[in-house]
Amino acid sequence: YKEFQRELIVELALLGDKKDVALEDISMDDSVERIVGKVMKSNVRTIEATARTLDYTVLERCAARLKRARAVNLFGIGASRLVAHDLAQKLMRVDKECHLYDDWHDQLLCAKNMHEGDMAIAFSYSGLTQEVLDCTAEAQRHNCPVVAVTKVDGSSKLATMADAVLGVAASEPLVRSGAMASRMAQLMVVDALYAAYVASDYERATHVIKQNYIEKQER
Is the pTM of this model over 0.85? Predict the structure, then answer.
């Protein structure tokens, strides 16, 4: 059933989304105004395609699993690590134990030291980043569930390994100058997961958020 579900998600993601999210080429003759327009258009279309790609049932299940987890371990390299940091900061606001390390060796050690009741969230747009795959395999060796935030065009190895997939629309080639629309799509998935988690634990989460509010002081 899991394999069927993943294949269905991939199929839905591929229906018409390729044309929607292709990043227009930036040329040396483009004005700054035109460049901004192209970047904005690419980001918006990728976010819209990702919203269509997301399986709401899986998202709800991931939020519930996040609520039950003893601790959450985040794995990601490069730009995906920046997205992981955004989720780590959000979880800290609601006093959810969360571990994220900038050094990959520390991430791998974290995966090796996972305990029963922990969960992992692995970030990789390509789904081919070996360091993230190694951490994922290690987490699963400890019988800990892994949620993958990755593209769903059928080429992501991470998607086939994970217990649940929060899909990102394929919007960029693997060889690219830098993560742009893909980063925005991953951030959108993070926001959706965090909001669903807060909604599932509303009273406690909102109480902690209010308690943790840091008032801005004029100097």
Answer: no
User: 80 is written with which tokens?
Assistant: 């995906």
Three-state DSSP state, 17:
helix
Question: In the sheet where 119-123 sits, what is the strand order?
Answer: 98-99, 72-75, 119-123, 146-151, 164-168
Q: CA torsion 7→187→77→108, rounded to 10°?
A: -80
- The pLDDT profile of the chain, 219 residues, written as one tens digit per residue, is 666 665 555 555 544 444 444 445 677 788 899 888 888 888 888 889 889 889 999 999 999 999 999 999 999 999 999 999 999 999 999 999 999 999 999 999 999 999 999 999 999 999 999 999 999 999 999 999 999 999 988 889 999 999 999 999 876 554 344 457 788 899 999 999 999 999 999 999 989 988 888 777 776
What are the structural domains, with CATH classification, of the chain?
2-23+30-211 (3.40.50.10490)
Task: Report yes or no: 55 and 9 within 8 Å, Cβ to Cβ.
Answer: yes
* Residues ≥6 apart with Cβ < 8 Å to 86: 187, 190
Strands 146-151 and 98-99, how do they pair? Answer: unpaired
Quote the CA–CA distance of 119 and 72 in Å, as a whole number: 5
- CA-to-CA distance for 215 and 80, rounded, in angstroms? 30
